[in-house]
Every structure is written in C-alpha cells, then in structure tokens.
C-alpha cells in the first residue's frame, strides 16, 4: 500500500511538472511570436504621402449694418396697398410705392428719390446710427425682425407704413475681430477680405476706422455692394478670410507631441527620423503642415506608435 502511494505521488509530481513545462513553452512561443509580430509591424509601418494643398483660413465675423433711411408715413387714414410689392424693391424717383384708399379717394405715396422701399419696420428706425454703435466696447445691438404690413391693412394718418433707403449710398458695417485670428493689422492694410459663405470668392471691405481694444479690434467698414437683400436684417454674418494657407496635408494621426513639440516621423531611405512641424488641424481628420515637410515626403501614419530607426518600406 505504501509503495502504491509513493508511485501515485511520483506520477502526480511528474504530471504537474509536465504541464508546467508545456505551459511555459506555449507562453514562451506566444511571447516570441508577439515580439516578432511587433517588430515586423514596427519595421513596416503604414505610410502617408504629404500632398500639396492651398486651404483658405476663414473665421466667422458677426457685424451690424448701417445705412441712411427715411421712414414713410401714410398721408391719410384708409386701407393701404403696395403696387410694387412689399419689397425690398428698387424704385426710381416718383415711382408709386404705396396707395391709401380713403373715403375721399386714393392718395398716392411716391418715392422721393432712387432707392429701396420696404413695407416693414424693425423698431430700430431713428435710433440705429453710427453715433450710437461705434463708440465704446459694448456688445453690438440686436435688431428686431422686420414686421411687414399687409396689402389692404387699415392705417391711420401719419402712421408708419415702411421705410425708404436712398441710393446711391455706401453700405457700412461695424464688427469685432479677434486679434489672435490675424497675423496682420487691419488699420495698416486698409482693407479686409470677407466671404458670404465658404464656397464664395472673397470681396474687399474698406477699413474706415479701427478701435484697438487689446485682444479685440472693433472695425468700421465700407462694403463694396448694397443690394436689396441686405435690407432684410441689420445684423450680418460673414467669414473673415485671414489667408490662403499653403503647405502639405497628412493624416492628423501622423502628428504627435514630443517634448511639447509637434513632430512627425519622416521616412528617408530605410530610416525614420523625427521632424518638428508647424501647422493646424483641418477638416477630415487631416493636418495642414505649413513648415517642416515638402510635397511627396513619406511620413509614418501613426505618429504615437512610431520611433526613430530602421524601417522597411518595400
């Protein structure tokens, strides 16, 4: 019996040792394979080509429009109609812009000069001017929406029935600019470039005055146009065209931080080297490199996993 117990213990110890050694061999093989696999991919990283590009750098600009206007009143009590429509509509001097039907007959309202007529008011008439908006550093005022009169609406004698904007005149704009968004001084340049939308070509706005408020600049502009659609709202949204940034595009993942510097790993021959770059992220998870790379350069697509040393690109 004692002999049987000893044999069983011996077999158990042998089995434990066998399984232990087998497990060590398996784990060792996995680690060796993983090390080989990691080295394989480190030496054969995914690469990206630096593509030349010109990207417009635009920042939002919110402003308010200023123009000279005349409020139009009804000459009598009655029901009003607008032969040219409620506008905004361009009319010549003497054009019939409104007609009031009273008990004694129809009374015409004619355009005093060439200009735009709109049968609506926003509540800022008589108060909205350069003198009330330009001084100081307070927020730009918020205009109310245009409230249109209806054809056939009854009006009293002397009641406002719309407003008239004489033409020609310069359309002016007051807006705030963030100094950090610019690498030039608007007052020295004499103009800025604006866009109605990202897909539009920029137009030049003349800089009439600049109020330096430290991190912010308050600018007084003259716009190169004055169409009827500008009259719909005194508030306006444009894009300030800062510059056309020229450089190369690479995946944003190719850029990593090393010692507080933006670097990419440039592949030349069979080696990769860390290169400092300057630029900005752009849409589509891409990075615009303005300095540090040339068109056609190869970079490692995943900068966070990259290292300097040997690479195999074929």
Which spans have pLDDT < 50 for at least 5 consecutive residues?
Answer: none
Distance between the termini: 69 Å
What is Rg? 36 Å
Q: What's the architecture of the domain at 68-168, going by CATH?
A: Beta Barrel
Report the sheet with the most strands, covering strand number, pairing sense and barrel closure: 6 strands, antiparallel
Count of helices? 3
Annotated CATH topology of the domain at 68-168: OB fold (Dihydrolipoamide Acetyltransferase, E2P)
- CATH level-four homologous superfamily name of the domain at 68-168: RNA polymerase II/Efflux pump adaptor protein, barrel-sandwich hybrid domain
Sequence of secondary-structure elements: HEEEEEEEEEHEEEEHEEEEEEEEEEE
The rough form would be described as elongated
**Helix content range of the residues, please?**
10-25%
Backbone structural class: alpha+beta
CATH class of the domain at 68-168: Mainly Beta
Name the average pLDDT. 87
Q: Please state roughly what percent of the residues sit in beta strands, choosing from under 5%, 5-15%, 15-25%, 25-35%, 35-45% or over 45%.
A: 35-45%
Number of strands: 24
Describe this structure as you would to a colleague:
This protein is of the alpha+beta class and 314 residues long. Among the domains are: 42-54 and 245-310, conserved putative lor/sdh protein from methanococcus maripaludis s2 fold; 68-168, Beta Barrel (OB fold (Dihydrolipoamide Acetyltransferase, E2P)). It is 16% helix and 45% strand. The chain contains three helices and 24 strands. The strands form five sheets. Strands 1, 18, 19, 20, 23 and 24 form a six-stranded antiparallel β-sheet that branches. The protein is elongated and about 125 Å long. The model has no long low-confidence stretch (mean pLDDT 87).
């Amino acid at each position: 019996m004692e002999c049987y117990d000893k044999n069983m213990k011996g077999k158990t110890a042998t089995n434990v040792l066998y399984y232990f050694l087998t497990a060590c061999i398996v784990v060792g093989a996995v680690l060796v394979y993983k090390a080989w696999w990691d080295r394989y991919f480190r030496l054969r990283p995914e690469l990206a080509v630096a593509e030349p590009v010109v990207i417009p750098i635009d920042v939002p600009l919110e402003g308010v429009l200023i123009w000279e206007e005349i409020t139009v009143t009804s000459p009598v009590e009655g029901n009003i109609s607008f032969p040219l429509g409620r506008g905004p509509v361009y009319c010549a001097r003497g054009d019939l812009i409104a007609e009031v039907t009273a008990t004694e007959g129809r009374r015409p309202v004619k355009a005093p000069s060439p200009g735009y007529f709109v049968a609506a008011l926003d509540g800022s008439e008589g108060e909205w001017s350069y003198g009330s908006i330009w001084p100081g550093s307070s927020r730009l005022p918020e205009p109310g929406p245009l409230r249109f009169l209806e054809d056939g609406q009854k009006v009293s004698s002397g009641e406002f029935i719309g407003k008239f904007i004489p033409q020609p005149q310069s359309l002016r704009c007051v807006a705030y600019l963030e100094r950090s968004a610019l690498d030039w001084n608007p007052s020295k340049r004499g103009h800025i470039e604006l866009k109605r939308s990202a897909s539009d070509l920029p137009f030049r706005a003349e800089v009439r005055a600049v109020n330096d408020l430290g991190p912010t600049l308050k600018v007084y502009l003259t716009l190169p146009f004055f169409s009827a659609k500008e009259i719909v709202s005194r508030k306006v949204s444009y894009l300030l065209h800062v510059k056309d940034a020229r450089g190369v595009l690479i995946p944003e993942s190719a850029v990593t931080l090393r010692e507080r510097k933006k670097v990419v790993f440039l592949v030349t021959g069979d080696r990769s080297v860390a290169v400092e770059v300057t630029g900005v992220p752009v849409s589509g998870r891409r990075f615009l490199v303005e300095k540090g790379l040339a068109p056609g350069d190869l970079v490692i697509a995943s900068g966070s996993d990259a290292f300097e040393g040997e690479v195999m690109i074929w």
